[in-house]
Design goal:
Elements: E1 4-10, E2 14-19, H1 43-57, E3 61-65, E4 72-74, E5 83-84, E6 87-90, E7 96-101, E8 105-111, E9 117-122, H2 124-128, H3 131-141, E10 149-153, H4 166-173, E11 180-183, E12 186-189, H5 191-201, E13 205-207, H6 222-225, E14 231-237
Parallel strand pairs: 3-5, 3-7, 4-6, 10-13
Antiparallel strand pairs: 1-2, 2-14, 6-9, 7-14, 8-9, 8-10, 11-12
């Protein structure tokens, strides 16, 4: 049985569930509920894990394969192929979007103004490329102002566990200045802190309460383990 890290509702119009690594069939080092078929896991195990995820909702799932950029894909519900993108959007009810991650930030956003659901995968490269602003721009294309957005950030590596080069830090903080963290002479970034600051200043309602992936054994962490799987967030309009 899937062991959910967190689940709930946004504005009573969208349901979300964040998976942990527990409750699947993958073997070490991908144990247990790996949802990514590009990390070296047995494809049959990944397929079985995805089927467990689908059975838990009763919905057809639409997965993204992150590109670590700002590519947006609209999902109508007719597609079944994996979407190479870091942003998935739908306006259709009961179209379940899925964003995998292991240390990067997963994000779910919706609005009470009109049917709209956006899932994002945000790593340092995406942050440096301006994905936070791209989320607001994408919402505006669908007629959603930033002040109408409500979002939740998924589990991700925290700044204390995420030392980076000064060059990476500068690239990220150019767009997310609050992400900067310096500790004992080492530069770091905390993407969720930077994203929270950016979105709140833009008028977005933000929830950021889930744990650090590096510090949580029940979650996959690329920085902690190297070769490992991916958990995911699944969300749909009700």
């Amino acid at each position: 049985m899937i062991n959910w890290l967190a689940s709930g509702s946004l504005l009573n119009i969208a349901e979300y569930r964040f998976s942990s690594r527990l409750g699947g069939v993958s073997a070490v080092p991908f144990d247990e509920l790996n949802l990514a078929n590009w990390v070296g896991d047995d494809p049959a195990k990944v397929k079985a894990n995805k089927e467990l995820l689908a059975q838990s909702t009763g919905l057809q799932l639409h997965f993204m394969e992150p590109e670590h950029g700002t590519v947006v894909q609209d999902v109508t519900g007719d597609e079944v192929m994996l979407k190479k993108a870091d942003l998935l959007v739908t306006t259709k009810k009961l179209v379940a979007l899925v964003a995998p991650s292991a240390d990067c930030v997963s994000l779910v956003a919706t609005s009470a103004k009109k049917p709209f659901l956006l899932l994002a995968h945000i790593g340092w490269r995406g942050a440096a490329a301006g994905i936070a602003q791209k989320i607001l721009t994408t919402a505006s294309i669908y007629g959603i102002n930033s002040t109408d957005l409500n979002l939740i950030l998924g589990p991700a590596i925290c700044g204390h566990c995420y030392p980076v080069s000064k060059e990476v830090q500068l690239a990220v903080t150019e767009n997310l200045p609050a992400a900067e963290l310096n500790k004992k002479g080492h530069s770091g970034v905390d993407l969720r802190v930077g994203l929270t600051d950016f979105f709140i200043k833009s008028g977005v309602t933000v929830t950021n309460s889930l744990p650090c992936t590096f510090e949580t054994e029940a979650l996959y962490s690329y920085r902690r383990e190297g070769r490992t799987g991916r958990q995911a967030v699944i969300a749909w309009l009700t």
